[in-house]
Amino acid sequence: MSPLLIQKGSSAHSAYDLRDPHAEVIETHTLAVIVDNEPGVLARVIGLFSGRGYNIESLTVAETDHQGHRSRITIVTTGTPQVIEQIKSQLNRIVPVHEVHDLTVEGFSVERELALLKVSGKGEHRIEALRLAEIFRANVVDSTLESFIFEMTGAPAKIDAFADLMRPLGLNEIARTGVAALSRGA
């Protein structure tokens, strides 16, 4: 006999579903924050997160408008829907902040990240690392007799998957840029 399935909008629960039906769902959101490019702005934005105990999964920042002296801060954060709304509201109140976009709710977006991965190994491990790098379209940017440094760009999940496969082959070190994201369309 199969368990009763949970259907969207239904109040029926499986006997095997041990999750608390009243627990808040934790969501991951990508926020694009347009700010004045001036000293202390990034510290104020980060201070908002640390002061209230919000988590930052990824953070990238760079000047995007040289004439207007504006920078774009891309933040990947997690929280309940209410916490995400609080974060956006509080970011909008910071004086040098011009715009806050929640790319997760505004529609489809493209997210990419750059990673450098150092993998040490000999013999079969070395051959397997090169084979997997080819499958994942990672480039060898440095090579010694004992190690490789691979460069890889892609969605964060793709980089996570590549790193997971490289761990048993001798992954020593990884450096990641954090997520850069843009919404799709006009």
Automatic annotation (TrEMBL):
It is an enzyme of class 2 (transferase). Pathway: Amino-acid biosynthesis; L-valine biosynthesis; L-valine from pyruvate: step 1/4; Amino-acid biosynthesis; L-isoleucine biosynthesis; L-isoleucine from 2-oxobutanoate: step 1/4. Transmembrane segments: none annotated. GO terms for cellular component: cytosol. Keywords: Amino-acid biosynthesis, Branched-chain amino acid biosynthesis, Transferase. One of its GO terms (molecular function) is acetolactate synthase regulator activity. Residues 30-105 form the ACT domain. PROSITE patterns: ACT. Its EC number is 2.2.1.6. It comes from the Bacteria. InterPro entries: Acetalactate_synth_ssu (IPR004789), Acetolactate_synth/TF_NikR_C (IPR027271), Acetolactate_synth_ssu_C (IPR019455), ACT-like_dom_sf (IPR045865), ACT_dom (IPR002912), AHAS_ACT (IPR039557), AHAS_small-like_ACT (IPR054480). It catalyses: 2 pyruvate + H(+) = (2S)-2-acetolactate + CO2. It holds the Pfam family ACT_AHAS_ss. GO terms for biological process: isoleucine biosynthetic process; L-valine biosynthetic process. Catalyzes the conversion of 2 pyruvate molecules into acetolactate in the first common step of the biosynthetic pathway of the branched-amino acids such as leucine, isoleucine, and valine. Dimer of large and small chains. Belongs to the acetolactate synthase small subunit family. This is Acetolactate synthase small subunit. It comes from Pararhodobacter oceanensis. The lineage of its organism: Bacteria, Pseudomonadati, Pseudomonadota, Alphaproteobacteria, Rhodobacterales.
